[in-house]
Automatic annotation (TrEMBL):
GO cellular component labels: cytosol
GO biological process, one term: acetyl-CoA biosynthetic process
Species whose genome carries this gene: Marinobacter salsuginis
PANTHER family linked: ACETATE KINASE
Chain sites annotated for binding Mg(2+): N9, E380
Pathway where this protein functions: Metabolic intermediate biosynthesis; acetyl-CoA biosynthesis; acetyl-CoA from acetate: step 1/2
Database matches in CDD domains: ASKHA_NBD_AcK_PK
Name listed for the protein in its UniProt record: Acetate kinase
Chief subcellular location: cytoplasm
Complexes and interactors: Homodimer.
Cofactor note: Mg(2+). Can also accept Mn(2+).
């Protein structure tokens, strides 16, 4: 059986697996959801069947169940050649992916305070695969690493310098694997090299972020110390006045409760009072549900405002790129966002936009647009698989 690379992505209550061959073609994928709950379930892509999980199944139980399915179906041998893990926060320690050892695990633990909802579950996936495949090289690929090229003017907050020096308070940025893929893919489609491409990359899903990429490197981004800052998201508020915490404390609401609400009950869900799913919001808005239309309006306006802000970090712009579940699939959101950017010269072709650019290599702008606008499906799993293969190869004797 040929070599394979296993990609592991642990969310707070979910687990995604992807299996690639040595040429980085995807062989299989699997998803477990509602982990830790009584109705936990999983399925493997292509098999068209549900995979039973015990009530309250943990990440490591789900991982072992799904890996066993991969093996039983003949998709992978007893062990993969390499394992790649998505890790949300690497702080300033990691500027690139790293082979996992005790020191790397300790450093990920040290960053857990910066991403308390993410790094601990990322570590659970790492520990589970290390236990199952102790002799297989494993790599941590960090959401924050791509943004370690930000200049100080972009990553420093205007707070006492000691906060940064002693505690690492700064903008880190996230979705780095997606933004890096966008830059490389946009360069290929526009006939440029990755080292010369300058784009604004908008990753829009349940989590949303935007990045300014100049000459192939990140120079500005919307997410900050944590994934809460920036754009309106599915359940996250994005930017709010920090004075909100003190104001709400006067209303009897503790800071930890405010933090929970801003992360889990705000954004599209909070504005609409209905859902964080953009497809459902559009349907509700079409049926006259005003709060859903308001949520869409705020989402698009905030996104347009950030696109304009990213222009300040670029000397020229080769393209604006939309990606992620919303960015790739919602012609309405793209159109309403670009509507706010006419002064900058952006203009869409309604026909190309409605067809997701499928007949134009992803390009959806009109002939009169000052800048190209592209829709490119992201592939974070592929980036992680490539990095894991690269690092595992460095261990292979000549």
């Amino acid at each position: 059986m040929e070599d394979t690379v296993l990609v592991v992505n642990c969310g707070s209550s979910s687990l995604k697996l992807a299996l690639f061959d040595c040429q980085h073609n995807k062989l299989a994928s699997a998803l477990a959801e509602r982990l830790g709950q009584n109705d936990a379930f999983a399925h493997v892509g292509g098999l068209d069947k549900a995979i039973p999980l015990d009530p309250g199944a943990s990440h490591d139980q789900a991982l072992n169940t799904l890996v066993t399915v991969f093996q039983d179906e003949g998709l992978m041998a007893s062990a993969p050649t390499a394992v790649g893990h998505r890790v949300v926060h690497g702080g300033e320690t990691f500027r690139e992916a790293a082979l996992i050892d005790d020191d790397v695990i300790t450093a990920i633990e040290d960053c857990a305070g910066l991403a308390p909802l993410h790094n601990p579950v990322n570590l659970s996936g790492i520990r589970a695969t290390l236990a199952r495949f102790p002799d297989v090289p494993q790599a941590a690929v960090f959401d924050t690493a791509f943004h370690q090229t930000l200049p100080k003017r972009a990553y420093l907050y205007a707070v006492p310098e000691a906060w940064y020096r002693d505690w690492g308070v700064r903008r880190y940025g996230f979705h780095g694997t997606s933004h890096a893929f966008m830059a490389s893919e946009a360069a290929s489609r526009l006939g440029k090299t990755p080292a010369t491409i300058s784009v604004i990359s908008a990753h829009l899903g349940n989590g949303c972020s935007i990045a300014a990429i100049r000459d192939g490197i990140s120079v500005d981004t919307s997410m900050g110390l944590t994934p809460l800052e920036g754009l309106v998201m599915g359940t996250r508020s994005g930017d709010v006045d920090p004075g909100l915490f003190d104001f709400l404390r006067g209303k009897g609401i503790a800071a930890d409760e405010v933090h929970r609400v801003l992360n889990q009950e705000s954004g599209l869900l909070g504005l609409s009072g209905q859902t964080n799913d953009m497809r459902s919001l559009c349907e509700l808005a079409d049926h006259g549900h005003e709060p859903s239309q308001t949520a869409i309006d705020v989402f698009c306006f905030r996104l347009a405002r950030y696109i304009g802000a990213m222009m300040a970090s670029l000397s020229h712009l080769d393209a604006l790129v939309f990606t992620g579940g919303i960015g790739e699939n919602s012609a309405r959101i793209r159109a309403e966002t670009i509507h706010h950017l006419k002064l900058m010269g952006f203009e869409l072709s309604p026909d190309l936009n409605n067809h997701h650019g499928e007949f134009s290599d992803g390009r959806i702008e009109s002939a009169d647009s000052r800048f190209p606008v592209l829709v490119i499906p992201t592939n974070e799993e592929l980036v992680i698989a490539r990095e894991a293969s690269r690092l595992a190869g460095a261990l292979t004797p000549d």
